[in-house]
C-alpha cells in the first residue's frame, strides 16, 4: 500500500484521465483512469523512473509503453477524482487486465517543452528514398546541427558548460573517431532545442519539416549553399588553411606537442578569424577559443572539423535527393 498525492494532470476530458502522483519519498507514479468507481474514479498507478517520465513528456514513448514496460514494481489501485493535491491510499495487485491498458500510440501532446528560438524549417526531397537514405540524412543533420549549436553559442549557461566539457575531452590532434564526440555533443543539447521532425511527405517532390533553432538552421543553410557553389569561398579557405597547417607540420599535433612562439600564436589566431569569416561563424571566434580552452591550434582544427561535417551534408544535398535545406 502507498500514500500518493496527485501533483499534475497530464490528460483530461471532463475528468482527469492521466495524472502524476508522488509518494512520501518523492517517487513518481503514473495514474490511469480506467472506470467509474463507487465513490469516485478508478485509477491504477505504476511507479516510473525520472528518465522514463522525461521520455513520456517529450513524446518519445507512449503511455502504453510506460505502463507495460517502463514501470517498476507492482501496479496499485485507488479510487479518487484525480485532482491536483488530492491524496489517496493504494492497494497493490500483481497484474491488470489487458482491457484497461492504454491504446498503442496514445501520446501526451502539449507536454514536450518548446523553445522560443526554434522555428519550422523545410527540406525539399525528391527521387527515390530508402531506409538507408533516411538514416544517413538524419545523422548528417543531427551532427551538423549539434556542431553548429555549439559553435554559434546557442546554449544557455548550464548547457554551455556541458558542451565545453565535451570539447575539452576530445583530442584535437586528428586521427580519432568522431562518432562518440557527435553523439555526446547532441545529447548535451536540451530537449526543447533539439532538431525535431514535424512531418515527412514522401512524394515527387516531397518535404521534411523540422522544428529547429532558427539561427543555427539559417547558418547551416547558408554554408551548404556556399559549399555547393563552384566558386565556394568556404572551400577555398579550408584548402588554404589546411595547406598552411600541413606546411608547418601542425597536422596531427596539438599545442602540447609543439613549442609555439608568439608569432605562431598570432598566425593561428589569424587562421581562426579567416575560417570563421568564411564558415558563417564571424563574431564567434572568442567563444570557439573558449571551447578549445584557449588552445589556438585546437581552435583552428575545431572550425576545420565543422567545415568537413557540413561538406558531407552539402555533398548529400548535391545529389538532388535533399534540396533547399532549412528554408521557411
Please give a structural write-up.
The protein starts with a strand and ends with a strand. A hairpin with a 4-residue loop joins strand 9 (196-201) and strand 10 (206-213). The protein has helices spanning 50-57, 63-68, 131-151, 157-169, 179-187, 214-227, 233-247, 262-278, 285-291, 296-318, and strands at residues 3-13, 15-22, 28-36, 41-48, 71-80, 87-89, 91-93, 118-125, 196-201, 206-213, 322-327. Helix 3 crosses helix 5. The mean pLDDT is 91. It folds into two domains: 3-100, no CATH class; 118-327, no CATH class. It has 328 residues and is α+β, with helices and mostly antiparallel strands.
SS element count, helices: 10
Count the E strands: 11
Helix content: 40-55%
Backbone shape? elongated
Task: Please mark out the parts with pLDDT under 50 across 5 or more consecutive residues, or reply none.
Answer: none
User: Roughly what is the average pLDDT, rounded to an integer?
Assistant: 91
Number of domains: 2
Q: Give the oligomeric state.
A: single chain
Return the string of H and E elements.
EEEEHHEEEEHHHEEHHHHHE
- Physical arrangement of strands within the biggest beta sheet: 6-1-2-3-4-5-7
The chain-level structural class is alpha+beta
The amount of beta strand, in percent, is 15-25%
Please summarize the sheet with the most strands.
Answer: 7 strands, antiparallel
Please give the alpha-carbon distance between the first and last residues.
Answer: 54 Å
Work out the radius of gyration. 25 Å
